[in-house]
Amino acid sequence: MCQNPKPSPAPNPDPSPSSSPRPRPRPRPGPSHSPSPSRNPNPGGEERWRGDLKKQALVQDLARRLSGGDMSTRVQAAREVRKLARASAKSRSAFAVAPVVQPLIAMLPSPDHDAREAALLAILNIAVRNEGNKDKIVKSGAVPHLVELLRSGKNSLRELATAAVLTLSASTPNKPTIATSGAVPLLVEILISGSIQGRVDAVTALYNLSSCEDSSNFILPSEAAKPLLALLKDCKRYSKFAEKATGLLEILSRTEEGRNLISDFDGGILSLVETIEEGSLLSAEYAVGVLLSLCSSCREKYRELILKEGPIPGLMLLTAEGTKKARERAHNILDLLRDDSKKKKVASKDLEILAFDIATRVDGPVKAAATAKRIMEDMGLGVNPTRPLNGKPSSLPVAWEHFDEGAHFCIRYDVDLGSSMSARIICPLLYHDDISFPSAISALLLPSAPCALLLVPGETLNRILPFIPTSI
């Protein structure tokens, strides 16, 4: 007979401490123990994570309000977008994935001034320093609305639209779209009649667009020449703005109308010469390009206009210190400015004597012949190989004066070449290793300039001074 199993005792619902096993004490965290799982090993990371979640929620809320609210709600949301976008790069990146850009663009043609202004400012701040946002804004159709604001908006909106075009045009993929949208002539209007900030922004936007891969997409109206020269005249020659202004002027100098406007502007050529002397390498490259375009197009018309502004010292220095393109351009324009008339050939013997005289004063009679020959070769004149240079140091009346702030001086040799022509010799600061005399000397026969100029550094001047006649 089967027996029932012995029933197990009922569980004690409230066991006393004496009747239940004693729990083992939990080890305290120490050097050999891991921290409790309840503790956050990186409290700063958790705080940032929570902050990111909060920011994402705010971005989504702004997107919702921009899309579905009434106009006042949308304006307020756009202002908050601007504020948040200005705060950090992360916020700008968050707007790239949220449905924010399209509702802002939809506000641009609104008849409400506040709505257009708020949308423009928000778009501008979303695009700053974020290439992805710039491209998305253009692809979403913002450019036609910006062009319309440039055309018919109030002054404040036109200048905000100019700033937006400037920012968007900094992205290479956007340049063809903007350049072919009709924005360029409207930017030139801002350049002519806008505020100082508007004009500066217009120059930068135009400069951005000028580097379009397809140059046919960018046609700069010649009316831009005068305001560009006016701005160049007043700006610092070494500034980035001067680079942009001279770059646009070089483009304008490729047309006859542009060249006429540049040469007719009071002080225009002088500003370009000063930019060659004082500007950055890029500014000097552009500026000498403008002068070369002028002189190449009609040497008879522009040669005297350019020479009148004293460009030779700056051009000579540029042949030594400029960019590769600037050096080539400087050599080319010096060739165009040089007087190649028959009178120059008549005066070549006098120049040989003058070169020998200068070389003797600096390096002594032993090295004078070799140095003078090198001088003449650098001038592009050469010497007669069948007749050695055996001129004697002449008693040329000499005057020296301080030329520039620093160790550069100008020595003036008054020379009568027996005609209405005279010689001007300019030496940039170039040296061969084996001689102390400047090696790159260019001779230029100029009308109504009865002197020969030698531009040397102070250390060379100190060597020359003992030989200079006292009758200064």
From TrEMBL:
Region (Disordered): 1-51
InterPro entries: ARM-like, ARM-type_fold, ARM_PUB, Armadillo
ARM repeat ranges per the UniProt record: 141-183
Keywords, comma-separated and alphabetical: Ubl conjugation pathway
SMART domains: ARM
Biased composition (Pro residues): 1-40
Chain ranges of the U-box domain: 53-211, 216-350
Superkingdom per UniProt: Eukaryota
Record's protein name: U-box domain-containing protein
Native source organism of the sequence: Ensete ventricosum (Abyssinian banana)
Higher taxonomy: Eukaryota, Viridiplantae, Streptophyta, Embryophyta, Tracheophyta
